[in-house]
Design goal:
about 475 residues, alpha+beta, VPA0735-like fold, Immunoglobulin-like, Jelly Rolls, 3 domains, six-stranded antiparallel sheet, four-stranded mixed sheet, 21 strands, about 25% helix, about 20% strand
Length: about 475
């Protein structure tokens, strides 16, 4: 080969390597020199930043695990809750008595998944889709896409193929997605109609779209392992294991575009996108600082919980930065620890009672009235309810088996159009029974409102639930 040919060959190789540079594996860099104090501060940020990602993955692994079956064997299939929980239900706090759930984990690592919904005949539903950072990135449902039948291809990052006609594309930020669907349910008498809607929610791999759908064996919720709850697992992780696990997850779950700054700071403690975490390469004093930082990050989350939302008329109103958190990483982490899978406020808001009108926590040994003026009823496009829980957030057994009360019930309105709801242990009697929400005979009350498809007045803070007034 002559000299001219050699120069040309070298140029071609150089240009080719330059073009491939973005796809070549990164080389781990030695962590920058950093003081123990700065490492501690960045470590606290890192713990909080990664908390939702780690929690989502632990949750995904546990939900999709079946003893004796391959890992992730339940992915790409809906699991439906077919009835409201009974009075002795204790699996999760504040269970829902307004909608029936339909949940699924999508695995997009091989191809897109097409999520199909039936025509609900005007019935309210929503299928919030969460990425692995716990952000809601798409919500097919009545508020957004209507109630006609539809097909939505949930596409993994970087996919550039073609979709069938009539299928709408939804770009997923991460290769795994959690769908936590809810379908309006107007009491047990409505179950049969809701079950038909639930059975119309399907997931089909793109490669099988042209084929007849294969029958799926119903998921057995009892056939699960005995591993500790995801939250206990995450909170109990050793700091080095936590950060190592987070770094591995970061290899397949891209950070959001707005995360550039914190990703830059993470490099100073040896955590880089695409690389395994190697704490042994850090100075021992820095390693010790990071271990202390993990505990401090969890403490910061616990400290933030009481002030997570504004308090109005004794109700905790969480309408800001919910579901989509931006760079408010502390709130995202706190919500992941207490309400993983929270909706965007545009879809639902859940006011929680903290105090009565006198500023005191409501208890079951008193009677209360919640009075809505004619023009003060909850401003929602869908429906609203008030649910009774005990101090721990569990249902309260009562003689009429009523756990929630709302605008879909046959309520007795006052002559002037106002509405009084009676929150007490004993039946108020007469016409008031229709508006009675039974309470425990003692202990703190965990009253929670649910406001679906709230209007602007609720979202901008100009409306809030009225104060809960104790009766003499």
């Amino acid at each position: 080969m002559n000299s001219a040919a050699k120069r040309f060959a070298r140029r071609v190789i150089a240009v080719t390597l330059l073009a491939l540079a973005p796809t070549l594996p990164a080389t781990a860099q030695a962590p920058a020199q950093i003081s123990a104090q700065e490492a501690y501060e960045i470590g606290v940020e890192a713990y909080i930043f990664f908390y939702p990602l780690v929690t989502m993955e632990v949750t995904r692994q546990q939900i999709n695990a079946v003893p004796g079956a391959p890992p992730n064997s339940l992915a790409n299939r809906f699991f439906h809750i077919r009835a409201f929980p009974p009075a002795d239900f204790r699996a999760v706090v504040r269970p829902n008595f307004d909608t029936l759930y339909s949940s699924a984990w999508l695995d997009l690592s091989k191809e897109p998944m097409i999520v199909s919904v039936p025509d609900t005949g005007g019935r309210y539903y929503l299928l919030p889709m969460l990425d692995m950072w716990s952000d809601v990135f798409a919500v097919p449902g009545k508020r957004t896409t209507g109630t006609k039948a539809g097909h939505f291809a949930v596409v993994p990052p970087g996919w550039s193929g073609e979709l069938p006609a009539g299928v709408e594309r939804i770009n997923a930020p991460t290769p795994n997605v959690w769908i936590i669907g809810r379908t309006q349910t107007n009491g047990p008498a409505d179950y049969a109609a809701v079950h038909k809607v639930q059975d119309g929610y399907t997931i089909t791999p793109l490669s099988q779209w042209a084929q007849a759908p294969a029958a799926q064996v119903p998921i057995n919720p009892v056939a699960r392992g005995t591993a500790p709850a995801p939250l206990a697992q995450v909170n109990g992780m050793k700091p080095s294991a936590y950060f190592k696990f987070a770094a591995e997850l970061l290899k397949v779950n891209p950070p959001h575009l707005t995360d550039w700054s914190i990703i830059a700071r993470l490099r100073r403690i040896g955590i880089e996108v695409g690389q395994s975490y190697q704490p042994e390469r850090l100075d021992p004093a820095v390693q010790d600082a990071l271990a202390r930082a993990a505990a401090a990050g969890l403490d910061a989350m616990h400290a933030k919980l009481p002030t997570l939302a504004r308090l109005v008329n004794g109700w905790q109103m969480n309408t800001d930065t919910m579901g989509v958190y931006g760079d408010y990483y502390l709130k995202r982490a706190v919500v992941a620890s207490v309400l993983l899978g929270a909706n965007q406020p545009e879809d639902a808001v859940y006011p929680l009672i903290i105090t009565d009108a006198a500023g005191k926590p409501p208890t079951g040994d008193h009677n209360y009235i919640l009075h809505f003026g004619k023009d003060e009823l909850p401003p929602v496009e869908a429906f609203w309810s008030l649910t009774m829980y005990d101090a721990d957030g569990f249902p309260v057994a009562n003689p009429i088996n009523r756990f929630a009360l709302g605008d879909r019930d046959v309520l007795k309105y006052n002559v002037d159009g106002s509405l009084d709801l009676y929150i007490q242990h004993d039946d108020p009697g007469g016409d008031r029974t229709a508006n009675w929400l039974p309470a425990p005979g003692a202990g703190a009350l965990g009253l929670t409102m649910r406001l679906y498809a709230p209007k602007a007045a609720l979202l901008d803070g100009s409306w809030a639930p009225p104060p809960l007034r104790r009766q003499p």
